[in-house]
Amino acid sequence: MLAIALTSMLLSQAAETRAPVGVVLTSRRPNTDAFASKVATRVVEILKREGVADVRDDARSTKELKAAGFSDPKSCNGGQTCSAKLAVLLGARAVIVAVDIGKVGKSLAIHLEAFAADLPEAIAVADITAREDKWADQSLADITTFVRQVKEKLTIQAKVAVTPPPPPPPDVKKTDTKTDTPVATKLEPKQKDDRTDLVDTAEPSSSKVPAIAVASAAGAAAITAGIFAGLAASDRSTWDKNVTMQPDGTFGSSTLTQAQVQQLGSSMNTKATVALGAGIGAVVLGGVATWLFVK
Q1: How far apart are CA 111 and CA 57, in angstroms?
Q2: pLDDT tens-digit map of 16-70
Q3: I need a surface site. Which of 87, 143, 206, 287 has the fewest CB within 10 A?
Q4: Which of 224, 181, 77, 76 is nearest to 87 (CA)?
């Protein structure tokens, strides 16, 4: 009986796992098809290498989503709401890793976001910038960190009720055998030590390492601002080509569906916000770097 009880307790505490994990491309941007498929494949490889079971690549995930009634994941245009719904369609405990790639000049902007079907918010997010000819090496560490964050959220720990211990019997009283014995403390002023050899005369370091580090961060923020500004401009161009607005602010006509218009607007606003924030960060960090160099 004891063995059966212990087995039942262990089974009740067994953790569930979110699965499957599907990797899908959720946007279709100019000049990114070749890079997007390679990045998605790299994400699948790292998920498997990190020990994640039941990983499905873009082709299989897209096929299953179409079988569930969704036309094309790329029609999400990188939108969060649309990508989150894909996880629900893939399964009650499924996780979708949405891959959104943008290209500005010789640089790539890689946006990875993971959604669980049973959670309201994204479980992991990563924004990575890399040169198009070196993206595999430059993005490897960031993608691995992102995958490990996803892996941590795949376990669903069952809640087990904990019963507090019963109170002690009413006739049991705590006894304290310690006695408080006064301790005499002799208070005397300490003599001032006038020895000058105890004074620290070391001069502060004039290393420029902090200034260089801040300057590098400012440069990275400026690059990020430029990339996302370009992506926002690309979305704006798509908007202008496909959506007509009336003078009163209402939609006049559009070649896109209402959902696609909303997703495009959301994507455009998000990237513009990231570009603005990164630009402000670059200006602030540049000022700090200048101050450090002068100092």
Answers
A1: 17
A2: 899 999 999 999 999 998 899 999 999 999 999 999 999 999 999 999 999 999 9
A3: 206
A4: 76
CB 21 within 8 A of CB 95: yes
Residue 144: its H or E element: helix 135-152
pLDDT digits (tens, 9 = 90+) for 227-245: 888 887 887 887 677 777 6
**162, two tokens:** 């904990």
Entry pTM = 0.55
CB contact at 8 A, 43 and 96: no
Residue with tokens 């455009």: 268
Burial environment of residue 84 by CB neighbours within 10 A (0 to 12, 13 to 18, 19 or more): buried
Sheet holding 55-56, edge to edge: 55-56, 21-25, 95-104, 107-116, 124-131
Which amino acid is present at 249?
Answer: G
Q: How far apart are CA 14 and CA 10, in angstroms?
A: 6
Gap between the Cα atoms of 158 and 14, Å rounded: 7
Q: How many CB atoms lie within 10 A of CB 213?
A: 13
Cα angle value 145/80/52 (rounded, 5°): 35
Task: Assign 3-state DSSP to the chain and report helix, strand, coil percentages, each to 5.
Answer: 50, 15, 35
Cis preceding-peptide flag for 204 (omega within 30 of 0):
no
Are 116 and 87 within 8 A, CB to CB?
yes
> If you search the block for the tokens 């499924």, which residue do you land on?
94
